[in-house]
């Protein structure tokens, strides 16, 4: 019921130390490459930086930050960048100047950026770092007064002068003063604009998680002189923990090369991702489940056969529920291209634990468990059969399945990371559950962050959990995720929290509900935004109680408006919208929407709707709203 490992030593005290060291040891090795959308068709050149070039640019920007803005160590710096390499220059410059970088989502030229404004109000940064083009495209009238008043520094403002600066200036950036408990990153949990929470990730947290990831996946250190270094290839956004830490920092940590493309480039043509893995002989890549499914749906067998994926050693999959069918279909589709099921490494983690909490070990086919759906609903992971990806499994004997005989196939998220303690706890009694019993996943270890920025109360609630029969000084992070342990492996089976995870992105239901309510004002009496489980993972379902004064003929238009507003504000489309009569949505006694019950009713087809709209296809970007 628990898996504990000894802590280990890390080699560097901070990312700044790491960069200086690597630039000295292998200056000419490529560190970062960005593939613009058109570069894959040969129309635009790729952009690249060696370790020495990255170091020089980072150092120069760090000096400018210190000299031009008056920012002092410990100050926060907002990072506002479109996809590209400048983000990492800004990020590492903060590390070197001992400022705390705060990544935010991609800037929208001329548009309001509510998430940026709420993060600014929350963490009170002293500078905003971006590039010249983005800064020129910002419409200050659409930002909060506080954001608009921030000094803005462009990383690419004076590249030539920056590169010409003498090395002796290093004295002005005294790395010796960095403490491992200083913050390396303030990671806003994606989503909630009404309730921003910045996870405080220290240098020690970050380096310990980078090392745990390296050990879990058996990633080799790249030698100083060799040409044989790891190549990571990612389209994940760097303002999310998985894109930043898994996609960029891990390759740099082991001395490898991170090759990046934009999420949009992948979404428009998923083949570009796999083509780039094939062309650049990438060894490491990964994404949430939906991305693998998108490849299966959009890439036909002939295209698949034109790829060479045999050099891909680690295909991690995490950040949202993992679907065994997706992994199997992907393995089948890309078998001729040299892809094997053992390459898949399902993993589980969250920003509050820096990134990774548990993972499958590389070289082993992911483990699958078929569990009795009925028992699962009652909190027990009763196992009907066990298998591994790719294994043909016999049909379960009906006798072993209760109720209507339905089973749910769960994919193992693997073992606890090397320094992480993973417990499954009955949250009310605060006792550790026996194997196979579902409870809340609790974590402890050196990569669990110390809390949320300036939020003592929630921090105590989320990061300060204690066991009823445990040492009160021993605290755990409550993840809000539900799961169980079987054979030392973690199976995530659901969520206590109401979070909606779409395409690996976390959305807070309150924010989406606020959009719907704001749109229809008095005509919406209640609204619930919930994640319902579909063929390929979670989908967003909206249930809205609409006043009886609204005519039925208006409902299709209302649904279109709801979808449009959600796309505008949150960049996601609902898969299902249900309009109910007043009283149709379940509420608590205190009048709050009961999202979990609402979700269960929708999935069981028990929510009575006046009008219902469904999108059948998993993704249809072209559909107009
Ligand atoms: P976030 C070499 N969730 O999603 C690179 N995993 O954080 C290695 N639900 O805070 C990279 N099943 O945004 C290793 N398996 O959301 C990457 O997401 C390790 O509800 C994976 O609470 C890191 C994912 C980081 C991430 C966290 C929430 C969780 C949970 C959900 C994550 C899941 C999963 C089901 C999984």
TrEMBL record:
A Gene Ontology term for the protein's cellular component: plasma membrane
GO molecular function: adenylyltransferase activity; long-chain fatty acid-CoA ligase activity; phosphopantetheine binding
Keywords: Fatty acid metabolism, Ligase, Lipid metabolism, Phosphopantetheine, Phosphoprotein
GO process terms (BP): Actinobacterium-type cell wall biogenesis; fatty acid biosynthetic process
Source taxon at top rank: Bacteria
Part of the whole protein covered: 9 to 633 of 773
Stated name of the protein: Long-chain-fatty-acid--CoA ligase
Annotated EC: 6.2.1.3
Family assignment from sequence similarity: Belongs to the ATP-dependent AMP-binding enzyme family.
């Amino acid at each position: 019921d628990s898996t504990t490992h000894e802590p280990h030593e890390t080699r560097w005290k901070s990312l700044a130390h790491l960069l200086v060291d690597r630039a000295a040891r292998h200056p000419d090795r490529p560190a970062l490459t960005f593939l613009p959308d058109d570069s894959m068709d040969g129309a635009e050149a790729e952009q690249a930086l060696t370790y020495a070039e990255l170091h020089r640019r980072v150092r120069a920007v760090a000096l400018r930050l210190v000299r031009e803005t008056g920012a002092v160590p410990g100050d926060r710096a907002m990072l506002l960048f479109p996809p590209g390499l400048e983000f990492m220059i800004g990020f590492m410059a903060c590390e070197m100047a001992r400022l705390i970088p705060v990544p935010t989502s991609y800037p929208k030229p001329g548009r309001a950026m509510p998430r940026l404004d709420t993060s600014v109000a929350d963490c009170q940064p002293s500078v905003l770092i971006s590039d010249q083009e983005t800064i020129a495209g910002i419409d200050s009238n659409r930002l909060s007064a506080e954001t608009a008043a921030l000094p803005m520094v462009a990383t690419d403002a004076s590249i030539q002068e920056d590169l010409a600066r003498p090395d002796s200036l290093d004295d002005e950036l005294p790395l010796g003063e960095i403490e491992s408990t200083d913050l390396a990153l303030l990671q806003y949990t994606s989503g909630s604009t009404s309730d921003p929470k910045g996870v405080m990730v220290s240098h020690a947290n970050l380096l310990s998680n980078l090392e745990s990831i390296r050990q879990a996946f058996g990633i080799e250190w790249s030698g100083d002189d060799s040409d044989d270094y790891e190549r990571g290839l990612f389209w994940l956004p760097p303002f999310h923990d998985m894109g930043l830490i898994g996609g960029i920092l891990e390759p740099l940590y082991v001395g490898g090369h991170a090759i990046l493309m934009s999420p949009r480039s992948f979404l428009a043509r998923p083949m570009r991702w796999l083509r780039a893995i094939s062309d650049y002989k990438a060894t490491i890549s990964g994404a949430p489940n939906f991305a693998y499914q998108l490849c299966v749906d959009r890439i036909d067998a002939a295209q698949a056969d034109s790829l060479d994926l045999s050099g891909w050693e680690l295909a991690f999959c995490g950040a949202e529920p993992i679907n065994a069918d997706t992994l199997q279909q992907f393995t089948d589709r890309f078998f001729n291209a040299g892809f094997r099921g053992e390459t898949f490494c399902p993993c589980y983690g969250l920003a509050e634990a820096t990134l990774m909490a548990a993972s499958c070990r590389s070289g082993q086919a992911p483990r699958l468990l078929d569990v009795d759906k009925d028992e699962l609903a009652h909190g027990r992971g009763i196992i009907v059969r066990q298998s591994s990806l790719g294994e043909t499994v016999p049909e379960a004997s009906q006798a072993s399945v209760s109720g209507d005989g339905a089973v749910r196939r769960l994919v193992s998220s693997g073992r606890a990371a090397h320094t992480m303690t993973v417990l499954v706890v009955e949250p009310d009694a605060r006792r550790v559950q026996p194997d196979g019993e579902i409870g809340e996943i609790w974590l402890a270890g050196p990569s669990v962050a110390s809390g949320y920025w300036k939020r003592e109360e929630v921090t105590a609630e989320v990061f300060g959990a204690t066991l009823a029969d445990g040492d009160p000084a021993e605290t755990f992070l409550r993840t809000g995720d539900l799961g169980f342990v079987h054979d030392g492996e973690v199976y995530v089976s659901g969520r206590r929290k109401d979070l909606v995870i779409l395409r690996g992105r976390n959305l807070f239901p309150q924010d989406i509900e606020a959009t719907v309510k704001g749109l229809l004002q008095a005509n919406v009496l209640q609204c619930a935004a919930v994640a319902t489980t579909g063929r390929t993972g979670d989908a967003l379902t909206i249930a809205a109680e609409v006043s009886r004064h609204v005519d039925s003929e208006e409902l299709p238009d209302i649904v279109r408006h709801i979808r449009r507003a959600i796309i505008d504000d949150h960049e996601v489309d609902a898969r299902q919208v249900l309009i109910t009569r007043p009283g149709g949505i379940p509420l608590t006694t205190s009048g709050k929407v009961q999202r979990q019950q609402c979700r269960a009713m929708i999935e069981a087809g028990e929510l009575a709707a006046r009008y219902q709209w469904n999108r059948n296809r998993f993704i249809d970007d072209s559909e107009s709203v």
